[in-house]
Each structure stands twice: as C-alpha cells, then as structure tokens.
Amino acid sequence: MRKLGWLCAVIAVLLADGVSAESQWIRLRSDHFTFVGDASERDIRDVALHLEQFREMMSRVLPQSAISSTVPTVVFVFQNDSSLSPYKQTFGGKPVALAGFFSGWSDRNLIAINAAAEQSALRVVLHEYAHFLVQNTSGHLPPWANEGLAGFYETFQDRSGGKSALIGLANDTYVAMLRDSELMPLKKLLAIEYTSSEYNEGERRSLFYAESWALMHYLQLGSRPRAAQLAQYLARLHEGEDPNAVFAGVFGDSAILERELRDYLRKLSFPAIRFDFGEKVSGATAGRADRLDEVTSTTYLADLQARAGHVDEARARLQKILNANPHATAAAETLGVLELNAGNADRALPWLERAATDTSAASAQVLWGRAILERYETASNDGRDSGSSLNDARQALARAAALQPDDAETLATLGRAESLAGEDTAKALALLDKAVALAPGQEVYRLMLAEELVRQHDFERARQILGPLIATARRPEIRDAARRVMTHAAERANELAAAARVETRSVPAPRFRVLRPSETRALGSLTMVDCEAGTIVLHVETEDQPLRLSAASVVAVQFISYRTSQPAPLTCGAVEPPERVFATYLESDAAIQTTGIDGRAVAIEVLPEGYVVQ
C-alpha cells in the first residue's frame, strides 16, 4: 500500500508539473492562432485546419471588425482526457466532464481541446468562439440571439478535404427536443434575460437553447425577407439601441413570427449553406512546429491553469520557474497576470515591472500599467497613499499604444489612466471611444467610457450607455457598477442644475472641481495642517463633526482658491484665520477610521468671500 501511495503521489506531481516523461510539447502558428500541445503534430494541424476554416467561413458572414480580433488566441491541444483534466474547471471538487472549452479574456483568448474527442470538443469550442466573434461586431445581444447565433454556427462541418464547408445543419438533439416539447411562446423567449431561471436551470435551459437555435435558423435560412430583417436588427443593436424596441420595429407583430416559426418546425426540413473556399484554407499549414522546453511549456500551461480557477497550483509552478531562472520574463509576466486577475495588484506589480523591462513587449507594458492603476485606485478608495506614479503607468501604456495602436485593451487602459490623471480629458475620451469601437462586446470598456462621460458632464450620452448595461449586462458586477454610476450621474446633474439656479448678489458661482464617483465633499473650516510624527493630517471643522484627513504630503493635496487675492500656499501649522473650504476626500474604511482618520484628502477648495452655499 505504501508503494502504491508513493507511486500515485509521483504521478500526481508529474501531472501537476504539466509534462510527463513521455510528453513532448510543441508549438506551431497558423495565420490567426497559436497552437500548443502534447498531441501529435498531425492532430494539432488537423485542429488548426478546422479553426482556420471556421474563421474563414465566419469572415464571409460577419463584418471584418468581428473577425479582426485585437487579442491573440492560444489553442491548447491535449492528447487525451487525462492530459486535459488538470486544466478543467471543477465542480464539487471534480473536473467538469467536457472535451473542450473556450475562455475569453480582455488580453487573450484561450481554447483547450481533447484531440482524442476532437469532434465533440470542436462543437463546444466553435459555439463559444462564435459568441466571441458575434459580440465583437454586435456588442450586447439578448440571450435568445446570442445563443441562437452560436448554436447555428457551431454546426460547421468541412467538406472536400477542407475546400468547402456546410453551416446550418440541423441539430438533431434540438430537433428531437422541440418535437417532444411544447414550444414556449415567442414573447416569453424574447423576455428571458441572462439572470432568468430559463437561462440557467437544467431542462428549462436546454429548451431555451433549442428554441433560440430554431428561431435563428428560421431567420437566417427559412425566409429571405426575415433574413434581411435579421441583418437590420443586428445592425441596430450594434448602434446601442434597445433590443425590445428594435425587435418590435424590425420584425413587427411577434404573434405572426411565432406562427411562421411553428410552421417551419412542423416541416422538419432545415436547409444548410455551402461555402466553397476555392482552394483549401492554407493558413493552418503555415509555419513549422517548434519543440518547447520545459520552462516555456510550463509557463503556457500555468496561464491556462490559473484562468481555469486553479490559481494556487499555477502560482507554485511559476514561482518554481522564477526561483531557478529570475530572468524568465515570460514566466514573470504570466505570474503577474495571475495576481492581477486574482485582485492582487500589489503582488502583481513587481513581477510585471520585471517583465516590462523588455520595452518591446507590448503586453508586458499594458499589464504593468494596469497593475499600477489598480493599486492606485484601491489605495485611493482606502484613503492610503498608493506609492505608485500615474505617470509611470501612462508612459508604459503609451509605449504599448505605439507598438499596437489598434489594441482595444491597450487603448482602454491608457484611457483610464488619462481619466485618472485628469490633465487631458479630450484624450481620455477619445481613447475610450476607440476602445469601445474596436471591441463593442467588452462591457467593462463601455462602463469606463460612461464614467468618463459623467466626469465631463455629458450625462445624456452616459445614460444611453448605462441604461443597457444596467438592464442586460451579462456580469452582475457590471450591472451593479453601472447602477452606481447612473446614480452618481443623476446626483451631479441635479447639483449642476441647482448651482445654475443660484443667484448671489455680488459673488459669481465659481466652477468647482468635478467630483469622481468615490469622492465625498464636505463644507467646513480648515483650521490646522498637522505635520507632526511624519504624517500630514488636515483638520476641518464642519457643522456635523470635525474631520481628520490624511495626506502623503502637503503638495499631494490639490489646493484651489476662488478668491480674487493671491492665495497663501498650504503649509504646516495652524491656519489663521481659518479658511472656509470645500474639503474633498476618499472615505476611510472602518479599520482606518478607528485610528481617528476619516479619509484621505484629495482637494481643498477655498470659497470666495461672501459665497452662499445652497
């Protein structure tokens, strides 16, 4: 028993390290994908051919903007299920039973396939890859359209040795389910959201998928007039219009469409489209296969493992590499990404800074800049000094933008940095606008754009973006954040409207600093700048309570005076006489407040004499 236990432990270690004694990992690149695998080169090239064919077919039915992904796609081809299992997501402590999966991230897409079950694996992968491509062009889609399109495209099958392909073949499982089940009313299908039970629960979810596929099949191939309407519907969704209003305006009476769909299903005849490529798609065969050393293959696999939820295992593997080879910048970047995605910006920063020493590596520059921003924002919200320079982030991101000027993640992150800096609002808005145009399916980019629009007082356009995010964003944290920004937008709009109505006898209303969503402003008197014990604490007396606001230094606080006379600089000591001010700060969390610090000072605005606050 002990020998058997020892042998099992050795096998587990070999699997955890990613490569057994018999495994040989290779890498090859096609025109649009990077393939890494321990399967045979022949199997990997076969997978490459299928993916390139699918992409070519999709390029003929979708706009070019959908196909021109701004992020790389890495495809892992495992020789069998045992090889794939350590990289699957788990449920109840066991790997989920699947033959392949697609994982889309803002910086890259990852695909994993079991070569021993290639056909079933490809079906799953093509479904999810279709989601990614469709969202690239259409932005947010309601669930029925999103799943219907993916279900339609996943039936892709190549013909004539890769010279042609069929799309739209009947899904036998769906057909049988629809034949044996009562079709749900079309109005109910259209009303299902990503949070609905019909989208998330067992058999109800299966019926939803089947009927969504059937409706999309009919709209695509069952009627020429309806196909033209579908194209118009998707185009208007891309412009950000409300899905329900667009559906009614484009397709008309849903009862008529429902009768047409029922008639279509009764016929049990589902046409398919044949695509002739002319010549066999050749992109998959370009390039030779490279045999990977253990460091490179383990770095690739640790990235996949971390993004599948096995963060601790991946961290240990990468740390082992870096302990042995501190100059392994790819491993440093991967470990930094792992920590960044886990919400550990402080731990990510040194690894990404090490990776960013290679100034020609655009991805490392973007990730380092992103880590700086996340630590900066977290520290600001906690009332702490971040110890990081926004200028470092802006410079790194500017280098990345010069290397890849059409990369959505780079532009969005640089736009966020410029927004936080607040020095060039036009540049911040232009960068975020371009990022959204390049990747309309990325909900977080639209949220960032809306936040900047609120900051610049373009409330109407911000509401047009936030409304759909609140109603239909796929991720609950995006919906919650959009609600907070919408509330802040309403408050700021009301404040500005009230300020515009205020009439003072002799003092014009100054244009005060614009509050960001996380900031608090208080009216009071600045009485003291305490610089003892190596810390800066501003004392502000308000009508409700005294405030104690910390600062990294006196110059770290934005000091603005609206008086006509030259203002005295903000210096240590008592303020005589006390200045009537607006104090803007980031509220401390409960633990910090117990130390007597109410928040971190952001700005002190000295009010004009005689100014009446409404």
Task: Summarize this structure as a short list of keywords or feature phrases.
alpha+beta; OB fold (Dihydrolipoamide Acetyltransferase, E2P); 5-stranded mixed barrel; 17 strands; about 15% strand; disordered N terminus
Number of E-state strands: 17
Residue-averaged pLDDT, rounded?
83
Radius of gyration, in Å, reads 29 Å
Q: What global shape is seen?
A: globular
Low-confidence stretches: 1-22
Structural class: alpha+beta
Strand order of the largest sheet: 6-7-3-2-1-11
Q: How many helices does DSSP assign?
A: 25
* Main beta sheet strand tally, sense and closure: 6 strands, mixed
Report helical residue fraction. Answer: 40-55%
Distance between the termini: 81 Å
User: In oligomeric terms, what are we looking at?
Assistant: single chain
> Strand-residue fraction?
15-25%
Task: Give an overview of the whole structure.
Helix 5 (118-138) crosses helix 6, helix 14 runs antiparallel to helix 15 and helix 16 (329-341) runs antiparallel to helix 17 (345-355). The model is unreliable at 1-22 (pLDDT under 50). This protein has a six-stranded mixed sheet with strand order 6-7-3-2-1-11, with helices on both faces. The protein has a five-stranded mixed barrel with strand order 12-13-14-17-16. It has a three-stranded antiparallel sheet with strand order 8-9-10, with helices on one face. It is 53% helix and 15% strand. The protein is built from 25 helices and 17 strands. Strand 12 and strand 13 form a beta hairpin.
